[in-house]
Structures are given as C-alpha cells and as structure tokens.
Fold this protein.
Amino acid sequence: MKKFIFMNIKTYVALGACVFASCFVAVAAGSGFVVSDEGQSSPSGNVITVQTNRLGAEIHPTMYGVFFEDINYGADGGLYAELVKNRSFEFTPDHFMGWHMFGNVALRNDGLFERNPHYVRLGSSGHSDKWTGIQNEGFFGIGLKRDAEYRFSVWARVPDGKPVNLLVQFIDQNTNEEHQEFAQTTVLIDSKEWKLYEVIIKSPRTVAKANLRIFLTDERRRSGGDSTVDLEHVSLFPVDTWMGERNGMRKDLVQALYDMRPGVFRFPGGCIVEGTDLATRYQWKNTVGPVENRPINENRWEYTFNYRFFPDYFQSGGLGFYEYFLLSEQIGAEPLPVLNVGMACQYQNWDKESAHVPCNEADLQPFIDDCIDLVEFANGGVETEWGKVRAEMGHPEPFNMKYLAIGNEQWGEFYFERLKFFVEAMRKAHPEIKIIGTSGPNSEGKDFDMGWQAMREQKADLVDEHFYRPVDWFKNSMYRYDDYDRSGPAVFAGEYACHDKGKKWNHAGASIYEAAFMTTLERNADIVHMATYAPLFAHVEGWQWRPDLIWFDNLRCAKSVSYYVQQMYACNRGTHVLPTTMLTPTPKGEDGLFASAVWDAEAEEYIIKVINTSDKTLPVKIQLEGVKKVAAKARMITLNCSDYDLDNSVDNPNAVLPCESEVATSGNGIEAKVPAKHFVLYRVSK
Ligand code: AHR
C-alpha cells in the first residue's frame, strides 16, 4: 500500500518574500515527520517530491464523473429540452397547470395514450369575436433564440371530421409592441383519427420568457366558428438539441458535461429514486418506450422544502432510462443507474418500517426484478423482452452497463436486511455487474461505520459515500482515504460538496477546499474508484438546493468555480498515481498546502496538482525524483479562488476561469510561488 508521507520542518520560512535560508532537516524519531534545526529554512519553501520511478495504482477511468438528479429543475425545464410544461395535461391536482385557457376548452380523459389519458377539446366559443385556444407558459417562460428552429408537434384529431387550422404562435405576453406574436404558423388538422402533426417554426428574435399560444381558427385564420379539435401531448423542442436527437437534451448543458470528460454518469438520483412514499418513487420501466405514454410522476423536490416550494415540479419521464444510457454513451461515461431497494426516502420516513416494502423475498421481488430487468434492458440481446424495448427505441447494440447502485442514501438494518435479497439475486443472475451499496448520509459516525461493515459483509463492490460538509470538515479530511481499509469494497464518493457555514451557495472560497480535498481521492485511487460532486444542475429561478455545479436560465448557462475544479481533475486524470512526499514548514496540511501527482501514460506527462488554501503565497519546489531533467517548459493551468465570495453566474459566466500558460522548469522540476487560494496544475514532460 502506498503512503503519502508529509514531513514537517519546524523552521520559519519567509513566505511570499522569495528569500529562504537554507534548511537542515532530520527525521524526528517515531513521529513520521521531518523536522529541522531552529533558524534554518528550506531553500525553496515547500518541497514536493514526486517519485516518478515508483508507478502507483492505476487510476480508474471512472474516477471523476457526474451525478445527475432531477432536482432544481435539472431535467424537465433543464437538461431535457422540451419547452412545454405539462404537455399531456396530466399534472395534478390542476390538469391545466402551466396553461392558460380561453374560449371553450374542456379537459377529457379518454385519450389514446392509456397511461396519459387526458387531453383537451377546443370548441366553438359561441361568438366569432371570442377566441378559443390554449397558451403554455413553459418553465419560467420559454427561452427562444433568434434564427433557431423549433419543432412544434401535437397529437390531434377533429372528431366531427371538419378540418381546422391551428394558429401556432410564439408570443411575448409582456411586450408593449402592437403585436404580442413574433412568429406564427398554421397547422391543418384534418384527420378524424388521432394523428401526429408537426411543423418547424423559426424564431426571428431571442426571447427568454416567451409563451406558446395556439388558437383554434377557421381556414381564414379567424376565430374557429363551430369547429372542434382535440389536442394531446403538445410539444415544442429546439431542433438543435444535443446530437440532433428528437426527444433531445439542451445542447449547451450537455456540452458542459461533455467538456468535463466525465468517466461515470450516475442517475437518476438522489432522493427521487426513493420517493417520499413508495408510490412516487422513480420507476425506470415507466420511463421507457414512446414518450407520449410515459406516465408523469410528482417530483419530491416540489415540496421537500416548504420555503422553496414549486407546485409545478413534476417528472415527465421524457428524460428516461433510455435517454440516460444514451447520454452516458454520448459523453463517454460509464452509466451508473441507481434503483430503489424497496424503501421510501428514509429522511422523510425515519424509523417508519411501514413506509417501506415488507422485508421478505416475495414482497421485494418486483423491486429485485427491476434490477434484473434493467440489466436486460441495457445489455440484453434484441430478442429478449427488455432488450427488444431498447432496440425499438433505436439502440439495438447493448449499452454495456457494468454498475448498479441499489439504494440511494440508505442506512441501518432496514436497508441491510433488504439489500441482502437483492445482492443474492443479482449475483446469481448477473455476477458481471458491480454492485454499489451505500453508507448513508453521514460522512462518519455510528451509522456510517455500520453501513461500511454491512457492505463488507454483503461483499458490495463499491460503497457510495455522501458528504455535504462545511469548510472545517474539509480541512480535517484532506487525508481521509489514506488509511482506508484496502481489503473491502472500493469507494464511490457519490455526492459531495463544500457547504460553507452561513454561505450555503456557490463561491470560490468553498471550491478551493474541494480542490484540495480531491488530492486525497487522487492519491488513493487504488481504493477510490469514482467521485461525483452534487448536485449537478440548477435553474436560477427554480432551485431547491445550493451550491450546484452548473447554473442555467432559459437561454444561458454558467459553470461554477466548483465545475472548473472538477474539470481540471477530470481532464487531467492521468493513468497512474505517483507517490508524492511533501516537506513543509508546518505539520501535515497546517499551512494549507496540498498536492498530488499522477503519470499520464498516453500523453507521457507528469501531472502535478498543487492547491494553496491559505491566505499567503507559498513557495513550492517540485522535484521529479528519477528524472534528470524535464522539458524546458511545462503547461500550467491556474484557478484563482482568492476572491472568496465570487462565482460565475449566468450574467457573468467568466468571472473565474482556469487560465492556461507555460512555465519555465528548472532541472528536474519546477520552482514556483503558489498564490493564496489558488489551484495550480502542471503538466510536465521529460
Ligand atoms: O443531492 C441532493 C440530495 O442529497 C440527494 O437527492 C440525496 O441523495 C442527498 O440527500
């Protein structure tokens, strides 16, 4: 087992002054630290020695990934590019949520999609000057971009066989101009039977909060007279989605994910996997097949915090398991689905055994079947029941799923007892799948220890740890994984973020601690195989939880400083850990300097990450032991987190960006001064 040994030089070093007296060091017996004579100091301040000839553990390609949950309008209203809210009129208790109706509009429930039976009937208003129609407000408005094309589609029929024209408009309800509509087209509905109609509309302008208005008209675009039309699944998508998929994702948001080069993609949650009660848990089988027939589900983040309440927050299922697998493939990440273990959210049900499925094989079987069938859906041949569903959706090739998390953030005996049945069945049916269990919501303590113990006993392959913790916790956890037991399951740091006390929102001052903390993930890549920050996305008008990695409104997105921290690690993952020692003037970590190093066998480069969390510039000498001389110049990427309260926003997305430059090397390494609250990364070649 490799060990990262820190050495302590008791000597005062003139920090920031670039003048260092020479330092005599000696190992203090039994302490594991190196100490120096008083009055002497290191010639170069902190000495980071990278042992290039002692290749350490391989770094798993899954090491840095993303965790997606439909929280903060991350899916509907976010990543999922559908612009119409409540497109199937299934929201409850108000089936017209998100819609304004005018004239003669009636809700009916004998539609053609059995799992979404509601639709609207538009009929005569009784007077030619009274208009009948419907208008959708979108998610915090509908964001439209100038010259972009949008695909309007609707399932419709004319029950009496008399053709009608739908006048479909993009409107700005708040304008003072003569016309509210700024783009419009007509769609002729001429079939007595339900049929899908669609038309492309180009937007002549950029509007962040447009509405979609549909008038029932006659052939001359006048009020619809005595005509009748039925409308179902009213939809509007940008044509230009990620990779042009019809049921697609918002391009800028997927691009942000892609640019992180994530190694793993965990989905779909989070607490939504569990549901506040079992009836509202996430059920993947409801999210595959034709989108029109995927039943909606309430989103528990609608009401989890009554001080940030969103009655219109539902899951359309449009971003379902097929789309998640496809997205994983498209962004080059291993898919990591999370399924329900027969338990409703423990946070909301505490010790209520009755909230969960009775703990016996028969009652748990449908949940176990969900796991086994999911493997078939993802990997099975096209002749299998679920493989066929995948193939019919457009992906006959398997998705090559390798991991399955069973349970989200569970703890205690309720969980352990249920998990047993799942593990047994999965090992029998699919021994090739790696099973991920959980250690619950705590980063340490009794429940956490019990969780790990149970996961060891049940031989889980990985344990999903969660820690949303304050700065102090991060400060004290910079070596968290150095002493982890190497004989049991590996670690998946599945949800984590630095939540600064009194500042539970994004800011650079917290992100720098995440950067420093990640050195312990990296150094311990033999035991830590995956790590994902959480949550991922947040709509600026619809968030329930902060901080988040990527913020967006209807038109723009902003990558947080924490995003850039993640990106710097993920894009500079390397292939092997390099044992690294650091000679510092204070005990381990006390001066706020942290480092780790890896070898990138493909690029043939050494990557050294140095994080200065302190308030002072720290001189650093990096030496690559085993290399005589490195190339004259190294690549350097710097993330300046010194403006503590600053972060990027949709209005100012470039406030804090990583900067790339070249730096001159010296001998077998680099001598540098790392400014306060900076994350500096070097790529050095021989
Ligand atoms: O990421 C937000 C929530 O935090 C997740 O849904 C849950 O797993 C955790 O409690």
Notes: The mean pLDDT is 92. The first strand starts at residue 6 and ends at 8. The two ends are 27 Å apart (CA to CA). The pocket of alpha-L-arabinofuranose is lined by residues 69, 71, 269-271, 408-409, 441, 466, 495, 534-535, 545 (CB under 6 Å).
